[in-house]
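Hi D.,

Good news: the full-assembly prediction came through. Inputs first.
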Amino acid sequence: MSTDAAEMPAFRYTAELATEIEERWQREWEERGTFHAPNPVGPLKGDVPADKLFVQDMFPYPSGAGLHVGHPLGFIGTDVFARFHRMTGRNVLHTMGFDAFGLPAEQYAVQTGRHPRETTEDNIRTYLRQIRRVGLGHDERRRISTIDPGYYKWTQWIFLQIFNSWFDEAAGKARPIAELEAEFAAGTRATPDGRPWSALGRAEREKVLGGYRLAYLSEAPVNWCPGLGTVLANEEVTPDGRSERGDFPVFRRSLRQWMMRITAYADRLIDDLDRLDWPEKVKAMQRNWIGRSHGARVRFACARPGAAEPATVEVFTTRPDTLFGATYLVLAPEHPLVDEITTPEQADAIAEYRRAVSRKSELDRQENKEKTGVFTGAHAVNPVDGREIPVYVADYVLMGYGTGAIMAVPGQDQRDWDFAKAFDLPVIRTVQPAEGFDGEAYTGTGPAINSGFLDGLDVAEAKKTITAWLEEHGHGEGTVQFKLRDWLFSRQRYWGEPFPVVYDEEGTPVPVPESMLPIELPDVDDYSPRTFDPDDANSEPSPPLSRAADWVEVELDLGDGPKKYRRETNTMPNWAGSCWYQLRYVDPTETERFVNAENERYWLGPRTTEHGPQDPGGVDLYIGGVEHAVLHLLYARFWQKVLFDLGHVSGDEPYRRLFNQGYIEAYAYRDDRGSYVPAEKVEERDGRFFFEGAEVRREYGKMGKSLKNVVTPDEMCARYGADTFRLYEMSMGPMDVSRPWATKDVVGAQRFLQRLWRNLVDEETGALRVTDETPGEDALRLLHKTIAGVRDDFAHLRYNTAGAKLIELNNFVTKHHPGGAPRALAEPLVLLLAPLCPHVAEELWAKLGHAESLAHGPFPAADERYLVEDVVEYPIQVNGKVKARVAVAASASPDEVRAVALADEKVVELLNGGEPRKVIVVPGRLVNVVL
RNA sequence: GCCCCCGUAGCCCAAUCGGUAGAGGCAGGCUCCUUAAAAGAGUCACAGUACGGGUUCGAAUCCCGUCGGGGGCACCA
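Then the structure:
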């Protein structure tokens, strides 16, 4: 390829010219504060239109690896959307900050000896340089970072709000813990052991309150990951019992940790999904994770050796209607009643089984679906008919769900069927299977059989009837069960938010008053987390902060004189900072509060006139990958609801509309040794692939350094310019579809911009080539059709089709106006292009003689006159096949269209004098004649 | 194993309510421009919608089944 300067016209739109234009406009925008979005009040106060739009990208983690072309896909998508709406006159808030706490910085610190803050801040600078180059229109005054004390001060403050509240079941919402304390003090609510509140010491009181607080300390089995040196939330553990990050084994271990009572909000977290404009897929994943099931608890009396009184085994079932078919009970191996009810003859067998199960890893226990178990020797009484049924211990029943015990109904549950077959236990069908059913357990619907007073009732009626019966006779009650567990909120890490909590001499947690926030992260000699042999289940967590003795031991006056306290040495999980960042974007510099209430209401409050009476408020458009479906998105919703209940925010959901962008993927190639070869240097010949002459195998998937197939936005900007790169990414397909990267295709976007540039600018002189010619009727029709189409496409995130329409319009100009574009076409074309390719659009707009940036409009509006056609061409189908075309006035009535169609030569010929059986006229579309 | 999404030209993708299968890009052919090549301009071809049924005047679109790809859940009682 020749790039000889002598041959290249001086003002051709090349990568060099594009880069010059882009750097200049990026500077202009920054100096002019073009993307500053004013707030109603406070430091960022300005004139605010009532019509606003808050667009947000998912909080990026500033990785040291830098960006590849996949990362900016969503960022460009939000930028186009934001720029489009800004041009139509709306006040648009779009910015980007950093979720900067996290394990990678800490691990990197261990390798390099540099402080995580240093490396993280370096990474942020690199990241900002990279995204600036792409031309994202961010309000840079609103950049925040979770590691800034000015930010995490408020993360700690929110923690205190959560700590200082409880969930009032009767009201269905959170209330201040002080109101609960007042109820105990007044005696309107009894203490657990019935003693008056005044008789309880401070530690005792705190223990009672801890049972209610939304953030509480718990001594409970948690997911301990020695390889990472920390505990993990359930959401961070894969189904095969390993850490999502690092893929290390995770062990169950009992530890004293902070928990968030997210389960209190389970119902609201499920129910409010209905009010969100989110992808159904994400809603389904959240519903599934929360896992609400309606059923009943049923109590079975069970004899225990050497005791006069029987034990009570409580089970949870979603199918109380099948109670007559329960032929045995199963307890989880860890169930506390196992020891009490096991007969002496069975004791050894049970003990052996429990030992064997405890040695199995989570993975073994789940992978091996062969049913195993041991008979306890005990029998329980089925409350509905007095029948004695055997009680087993088996590991297919989990201690962690429901009551850790089930009633087994092999006739209607496949797992129970499998166990019953393995242990030769009886099966009683209690639902009449459908006609022709030849399976094993029948889980479908049908009338109840073999079920006494339930016989003949369908499943739903039977459930209702038996639940009422259980409640009336005291054998159980209807209940709702969730899979969701409370959120483990402690991490044994250095690089996270410190808890605003200290412990007194009795070990009782005491919140640090708001006036002492932020609790800053101290510098320590060794800030690496202590990790262990990944398989060492018995290792002890050791938070790095516990080694900062000077920081841990403090003397504070918390209202009753100076006393010695110990600081909490765990830190918060990575998710904390991202639970509320949209609120801080609104008011990044507010010092009195986490966000000013008026600003919060303006940007994030419900807007019922616009979005309907159920509108929960929140960010107007939130774009990110689907990988956060249950982690970040569930936690952020939970925090929002607590803040809402306490009156700190005006809406009860953080993100009104969510959109999941697809991923950019790439081909990778391996040689015959299985090593990856640089994808860039692979040649394709006849559908086969070669690297340095040797054939290589193609794979498809992620872009990554180790796969040697990374393409960076920096490279693309250098080779083509940012506008070309943006346009190509947006043209590749719909925003929500994953697709392969193809560097060779980028040139198509570049050629388009070159043609457009050439239509407006003389490549030799740089002078404007725009004429005052009045465009013809055809041109105006196409122009207004394009305006209407592009507007609609931008509003619905269909950037690929918007781009295609602009190319069409430009092609028309190229073809019909070789002497230069008429101004009446050139100006709207530039404006329509601006959201996608803002730099070149600004440059052309300026060349067209406009002193003001086009960032705030105008955006062209279509003239309806040019959208209605005078004459419509109707295809005439005969029996569904197109046989002819006729032109008919657009105002023609269906009968007139019918008449014209039937008069058509071809149709007359095919009719051959006969009458059509039927004629279908679709106004504006076609005519179908049925013979 | 269960649930969800997707299969349209060699490739990436359009077709918005069931109404003419093709907007745009890459790659390809031809023509013009050029000493030549590249770039550029113009122009052309290519699939009948993964497959098999069904509903309909009419199906890429709706329904059933099969195959292929992607994702979620996976003893949750």
